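Bug #77: duplicate submission created two jobs. Keeping one. Sequence:
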Amino acid sequence: MSDTEPIRLKPRRIRVVCWSAAIALVVVFGLVATSLSGPTGDGYGSFQRGDQIAMIGLGIFGALGFLLFTRPRVEADARGVRVRNIIGSYDLPWEVVRGIRFDRGAPWASLELYDDDLLPLVALQAADKELAVDGVRALRRLHQAHLDTLAARAPGH
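Kept job's structure:
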């Protein structure tokens, strides 16, 4: 991989877990929905078709909630880095990035910005082990290439 080749990073393990959980949730709520029929037990009410549809709908909404956790990704190129977390997206030029951190024990990597903010990179999760480490290294290479370009443009160079 070259120093300026665009990269696209997504978490792997959480995607597998969330898709599996979403499918299981829809199946379970579907099974519950099919078992809802007849009286409620003491004879005062009974389950209707609408109750079954509502249970399936709840399963689908729950599955969509799980799938929100598959949303994170990081895309970067020579111009900057685009971060999409579970909630919120950011498009940052390399000029505002001081460094890329992946502290020991941290659940995910983060961008250290010049205004002393830390922007979490949820797409680079410690659970993905080497995949996350390789992603951080690739981001650091792009960032360093940008710094080298700035140094080459500086007066007196």
